[in-house]
Design brief:
This protein is of the alpha/beta class. The chain contains eleven helices and five strands; from the N terminus they run ααββαββαααααβααα.
Amino acid sequence: MPSQPRDVFHWKPLAPEGRKAVADAAMAAYPALKTPTEAQDFVSRVVVPASFRWAYVLNGKCATSSTLRYLFQMEFGTALTVALEDDTDLNPDSVAHRLHRASVLRKLSELKRGVDVLPGALRLSTVRHPATRALSAFFYICATQDRAHPFMAEDRIRMNAMVGFDWDNDRRTAAGFVKFLRYIEDGLRHSQQLRVNPHWRPQMTNTRPDVYQPDLIGRVEDLGSFFRAVADRLGQPLPAGWVEPRANTQPPRDLSAFDGPEVRALIARIYADDFAAFGYDPGALPLLPKE
């Protein structure tokens, strides 16, 4: 238990007009942000605590729930134990993504001088092999159909129209996964990447390492090493009996049916920049379950 209350944000987040000013400041500070839309997306994707000692950039389907739980415990000295059932949120660990709503964390876009926080913060991000991330996103959108959930409904409609995705028969099938990848590729070809769903668009678009310049990049495949490295950089030993958080995980599946030349070719094309930036091997897709 902390000896005294830990610091949180005690003032309201910026109103929309103030957030525009933060995005404008980000464009001025980081020339790689070419448009207001890019800048707005970037500053709304990075969260920080009131101590400003670290920052974390959110990257869909890359253990964000688990990492937010870990960072909460590191920052406040206690595990996140709040129970929440929210039928409007498909994520069963939705409470981990409400930390900024509770003003326990803040997005850079919600801070008057948000851009000024980054240079002094330990900048963190998490990434994942593009193949398993794409599969996770595919299972995720299939789950929205199972529940007739409004989340991702527009993408489901567009998949139905653009690639003939049959939501009665293609869910969680190898043929359906190929259609999903074709949908992503076609969306990226015809739209700006920022218009593509962040759960499956390239991770480079979400994390913007050219702007954010992370100090530590955690791999979903080895989160434990990442969490220990963060603790070391913060000069804060992990608590005795610490257990690595694993939130919003999907059940194990036999993924061998999803592998094949067409899948490999699509993933290699769609996520070429991610493979180059994060050191994953496009010739060794980890689609087979581990022994």
